[in-house]
Amino acid sequence: MTDKKKAAAAAASNAAASAPVPDARRLKHIEASLRTKYKHKIFNKFVQAICDYDMIRPGDKIAVCISGGKDSMLMAKLFQELKRRNKIPFELVFLCMDPGYTAANRRAIEANAALLHVPLTLFETNIFDSVFHVEQSPCYLCARMRRGYLYRRARALGCNKIALGHHFDDAIETFLMSMLYAGEVRAMMPKLHSTSCPGMELIRPLYYVKEDDIKRWRDENGLCFLQCACRFTEENALPRANGASDSKRLEMKELIRRLETESPQVGANIFHAMGNINLETVLGYKQDGREHSFLDVYEKERPAADSTILP
Fold it and tell me: Is-above-0.90 flag for pTM?
């Protein structure tokens, strides 16, 4: 080999040594943490919710919906871990919708997916543009539109279920918001049938997982996910001049935290209340689109007179 060729080979070798390579050891550590330190607080709770609510059945093809945030990325890794154990035969598609992300946010999602070895199936929509100038309930409209797109794309890919990354805290915050701001008792269900896409089902396998545990897993593994890539939130989520927050969910989160400083079981009690409603002690309820009042059966339940106490 000539000196010129030796120099070229040495330069190529040095360039290869200095080039960035996938950190396999880091990925191994991240995945191992879900089997060790976070097994009980995250992975086991994930599996427990799936079992308690019968979320997965043999032959399912599930679209795991990736938003780019900590919750959906964790959910993807948990599904991969469950798939490795292969106790239930099912298929996965890691579905990521770009509703109009900035180029930087799109790159961040793709970089995290590459780091975590989550094979994304990406598709694009213009949802952010569609709802940006909507004044009344833009977040509600955006969520509805996103879910509709996800259902349709998942069905086109042969899936019969979509999985969303809503966790324990999302459930109790939604429950409180419905009472305080909507005047009704409404829970975020662990699974439900789609009304717009017959045959499709939505599941929430992080239903028992607490947000603080997700944050610890993220931070201890040095991961950095999107907080909120919504264009509307970026421009309108700042506190008002009087110090109040524009986010009702944030208000609920702060309220629960304040209550838990005095009573640590408050969050758990709210969660248990969602499944422990005594219909005998409520003024009314709705079922199958019909309203029912306690007065409907009140007279029928009148105790019979006890003749032993009559004069």
Answer: no
